[in-house]
Amino acid sequence: MVSHGSRQEVASISAIEFLTGEVLLHTFVQPADKVTRWNTRWSGITSKKLNAARRQGKVLWGWKEARSALWSFANQSTVFIGHAIRNDLEALKIIHPRIIDPSIRTNEAVFRQNSNKRLWSLTILSHWLAQ
Protein backbone atom coordinates (compact mmCIF):
# COMPACT_ATOMS: atom_id res chain seq x y z
CA MET A 1 0.00 0.00 0.00
CA VAL A 2 1.05 3.52 -0.75
CA SER A 3 -0.55 6.75 0.38
CA HIS A 4 -2.13 9.74 -1.26
CA GLY A 5 -2.52 12.21 1.57
CA SER A 6 -4.29 10.36 4.36
CA ARG A 7 -5.81 7.77 2.00
CA GLN A 8 -4.15 4.42 1.37
CA GLU A 9 -4.09 3.03 -2.15
CA VAL A 10 -3.28 -0.38 -3.53
CA ALA A 11 0.10 -0.55 -5.28
CA SER A 12 0.40 -4.33 -5.54
CA ILE A 13 -1.90 -7.29 -5.22
CA SER A 14 -1.22 -10.97 -4.62
CA ALA A 15 -3.46 -13.99 -4.21
CA ILE A 16 -2.29 -17.49 -3.35
CA GLU A 17 -4.34 -20.68 -3.28
CA PHE A 18 -3.93 -21.68 0.36
CA LEU A 19 -4.04 -25.48 -0.02
CA THR A 20 -1.71 -25.78 -3.02
CA GLY A 21 0.45 -22.66 -2.70
CA GLU A 22 -0.26 -21.79 -6.33
CA VAL A 23 0.28 -18.11 -7.07
CA LEU A 24 -2.95 -16.91 -8.66
CA LEU A 25 -2.13 -13.22 -8.87
CA HIS A 26 1.00 -11.20 -8.15
CA THR A 27 1.36 -7.81 -9.81
CA PHE A 28 1.81 -4.10 -9.29
CA VAL A 29 -1.14 -1.72 -9.35
CA GLN A 30 -0.77 1.82 -10.68
CA PRO A 31 -2.56 4.09 -8.19
CA ALA A 32 -5.07 6.51 -9.69
CA ASP A 33 -3.75 9.46 -7.67
CA LYS A 34 -0.24 10.82 -7.20
CA VAL A 35 1.63 8.91 -4.51
CA THR A 36 2.66 11.18 -1.65
CA ARG A 37 4.14 8.44 0.58
CA TRP A 38 5.54 5.14 -0.71
CA ASN A 39 5.60 3.28 2.63
CA THR A 40 8.53 1.28 1.21
CA ARG A 41 9.55 0.05 4.66
CA TRP A 42 6.36 -2.01 4.84
CA SER A 43 5.42 -2.52 1.19
CA GLY A 44 8.79 -2.90 -0.47
CA ILE A 45 7.39 -0.79 -3.30
CA THR A 46 9.35 2.11 -4.74
CA SER A 47 8.58 4.50 -7.58
CA LYS A 48 11.46 2.91 -9.50
CA LYS A 49 9.95 -0.60 -9.23
CA LEU A 50 6.47 0.58 -10.16
CA ASN A 51 7.75 2.60 -13.13
CA ALA A 52 9.77 -0.38 -14.40
CA ALA A 53 6.70 -2.64 -14.19
CA ARG A 54 4.61 -0.01 -15.97
CA ARG A 55 7.16 0.25 -18.81
CA GLN A 56 6.97 -3.54 -19.21
CA GLY A 57 3.17 -3.45 -19.28
CA LYS A 58 2.99 -5.46 -16.05
CA VAL A 59 0.62 -3.35 -13.99
CA LEU A 60 -3.07 -3.22 -13.30
CA TRP A 61 -4.53 0.27 -13.57
CA GLY A 62 -6.13 1.39 -10.32
CA TRP A 63 -8.07 -0.31 -7.57
CA LYS A 64 -11.02 -1.19 -9.83
CA GLU A 65 -8.87 -3.27 -12.16
CA ALA A 66 -7.09 -4.86 -9.17
CA ARG A 67 -10.42 -5.75 -7.58
CA SER A 68 -11.68 -7.27 -10.85
CA ALA A 69 -8.51 -9.35 -11.13
CA LEU A 70 -9.00 -10.62 -7.57
CA TRP A 71 -12.66 -11.49 -8.19
CA SER A 72 -11.62 -13.56 -11.22
CA PHE A 73 -10.22 -16.04 -8.66
CA ALA A 74 -12.42 -15.39 -5.64
CA ASN A 75 -16.11 -15.21 -4.76
CA GLN A 76 -18.27 -14.63 -1.68
CA SER A 77 -17.40 -18.07 -0.26
CA THR A 78 -13.64 -17.51 -0.57
CA VAL A 79 -11.82 -17.05 2.73
CA PHE A 80 -9.37 -14.14 2.62
CA ILE A 81 -6.38 -14.45 4.93
CA GLY A 82 -4.08 -11.54 5.63
CA HIS A 83 -2.43 -9.51 8.35
CA ALA A 84 -4.42 -6.29 8.89
CA ILE A 85 -6.36 -7.28 5.77
CA ARG A 86 -9.09 -4.76 6.51
CA ASN A 87 -6.77 -2.05 5.15
CA ASP A 88 -6.33 -3.91 1.86
CA LEU A 89 -10.03 -4.67 1.51
CA GLU A 90 -10.90 -1.06 2.29
CA ALA A 91 -8.50 0.18 -0.42
CA LEU A 92 -10.14 -2.24 -2.87
CA LYS A 93 -13.59 -1.13 -1.65
CA ILE A 94 -14.51 -4.71 -0.74
CA ILE A 95 -16.75 -5.75 2.12
CA HIS A 96 -16.25 -9.47 2.64
CA PRO A 97 -17.76 -11.71 5.31
CA ARG A 98 -15.08 -14.40 5.40
CA ILE A 99 -11.67 -13.23 6.57
CA ILE A 100 -8.95 -14.52 8.86
CA ASP A 101 -6.72 -11.79 10.21
CA PRO A 102 -3.80 -12.85 12.47
CA SER A 103 -3.56 -9.35 13.94
CA ILE A 104 -7.13 -9.62 15.24
CA ARG A 105 -6.92 -13.30 16.23
CA THR A 106 -3.75 -12.68 18.25
CA ASN A 107 -5.40 -9.85 20.14
CA GLU A 108 -8.41 -12.06 20.91
CA ALA A 109 -6.18 -14.94 22.05
CA VAL A 110 -4.15 -12.76 24.40
CA PHE A 111 -6.83 -10.51 25.84
CA ARG A 112 -10.04 -12.56 25.40
CA GLN A 113 -13.10 -10.38 26.00
CA ASN A 114 -10.97 -7.67 27.61
CA SER A 115 -9.52 -6.73 24.25
CA ASN A 116 -7.49 -3.56 24.40
CA LYS A 117 -7.38 -3.30 20.61
CA ARG A 118 -3.61 -3.84 20.56
CA LEU A 119 -2.51 -5.06 17.13
CA TRP A 120 1.02 -6.38 16.79
CA SER A 121 2.96 -6.03 13.54
CA LEU A 122 3.59 -9.13 11.47
CA THR A 123 7.33 -8.72 12.12
CA ILE A 124 6.83 -8.80 15.89
CA LEU A 125 4.43 -11.77 15.72
CA SER A 126 6.81 -13.72 13.47
CA HIS A 127 9.77 -13.02 15.74
CA TRP A 128 7.79 -13.99 18.84
CA LEU A 129 6.51 -17.23 17.27
CA ALA A 130 9.98 -18.21 16.02
CA GLN A 131 11.44 -18.18 19.54
From TrEMBL:
Keywords: Exonuclease, Hydrolase, Nuclease. GO terms for molecular function: exonuclease activity; nucleic acid binding. The keyword Membrane does not apply. The keyword Nucleotide-binding does not apply. One of its GO terms (cellular component) is nucleus. Residues 7-112 form the Exonuclease domain. GO terms for biological process: ribosomal large subunit assembly; rRNA processing. Pfam families: RNase_T. This is Exonuclease domain-containing protein. It comes from Penicillium diatomitis.
